[in-house]
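Format notes (please read before filing issues)

Several people have asked whether sequences and structure tokens are stored in separate files. They are not. Every record keeps both together, in the order shown below: the sequence lines, then the token lines. Line labels are part of the format and must not be stripped during preprocessing.
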Amino acid sequence: MHLVQPRHHISLQDYENVATLSVTVRDLRQEVSNLIPTLGNRRVWMVNSTARGGGVAEMMPPLITLMRDLGVEANWLVMDVADPAFFRLTKRIHNMIHGEGATHVDDADRQLYDQISQHTADALEQYVSPGDVLVIHDPQPMGAGAIVRRRMDVAAIWRCHIGLDQETPHTRAAWEFLGRYTDDYDHAIFSAPEYIPGPLTGKSTVIYPTIDPLSHKNRELPIHKLVGVLVNGSLIQPFGPVPTEQFPEPARRLQSDGTWALACQPEDIGLLFRPIITQVSRWDRLKGFLPLMEGFVTLKQDLTNGTVLESRYHKTLRLARLVLAGPDPDSIQDDPEGQEVLKEICQAYLNLPPAFQKDIAIISLPMGSAKHNALLVNALQRCSDIVVQNSLREGFGLTVTEAMWKRVAVMGSHAVGIRQQIRPGLDGCLVKDPEDPKEIASILGELLRDHHKREELGNNAQRRVYNDFLIFTQVRRLFEVITEVVEARWS
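Then the structure lines:
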């Protein structure tokens, strides 16, 4: 277990100085000021499994910083686990909660999880004092948080960012395994009401994950800054000198011979000129990369089949390219399947005819610098005509929120987390079956055909995020839950 100092240099006052955010921030200050007296001098400890990669790790720095600015001593702890078998196990549990993979957890798995949880709890106790509040994120540290709650006079909240809106043998096995610890928690937080399992129904709250509008991933990028990020990250060929330095680690692109090279090779992807369809996600089977690729190929086949008659749409479709981007999988400790899934995607790409390969770019984004990675994602999304999140399962899907905030037309699946955000036909489009290439191709084609519709969806989507999915809403709701738990435990 180690303490992470959040590298977030944006204060609450900085947000308030932005004209479009000032009223929201002032309201947050007033609402939280009424709750602070209940918390007193209690410390809040956020605990999760990794400091980088994925929505939880990205959420932590602004969340911790804003809580501190509002008057609470909030801290961030991350697990130290050297045994990769533990993360393979928790990845299986993650998949089971999503209704995939295994349908049981054996005694050896329980012994491993309990052993790591004991060690992690011992380390956690070195930081926590009686009266503090623990906020434990997802299954990895759940056991450790429960053990500390049994040993010490602390309050404990478990926040689960994943789930499924139906009960299956997989989910029953997962919740049976985790159920050994749920009773130890004072309260639980989920991202959707559909995710709350029966035993936790009476002591759970729904809080949507949110984005930070001034983060490197979501802030506005003026044209010179945007081009500079693309050049420095090797996503485009430089057309001239730029004042900023080349990133130490470039984005890499899969080549037709199976090797990796700079993302702008063997030719420029065309991010500044071509119609671009993009999906940015972890390399995870549940993200629906393969059927999305098949859907794009199906769409392109309309050209060879002669079914596209409109000249403007014909040119748009001919120039359109698909970008599938994700993090360098070697850099994410708690996602051991990433490398394997990326290999499957690469093999599917290599099996395509050259004519389709040239219109698909598989990009590995460097993770050595969180700032550079975030800027690359930001630039990719802003260069896109359509951002896709074709998830078979999705806890929430902050990549959807990010694209909506940037006024990009979004096509998502009916996964619960995504349909919490997108109102079909108003904020974006939803595909009913994310494994159906024909349906994917049909919706992509409709969006490419109608640029006015894309603009309308994008404008509505940004308003939706402003109202419901910015970090200020999450901070307020979290303060409310923590206050309620503290009152119930120590009043």
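For reference, the curators noted about this record: DSSP finds 19 helices and 15 strands in the chain. The first strand starts at residue 2 and ends at 4.
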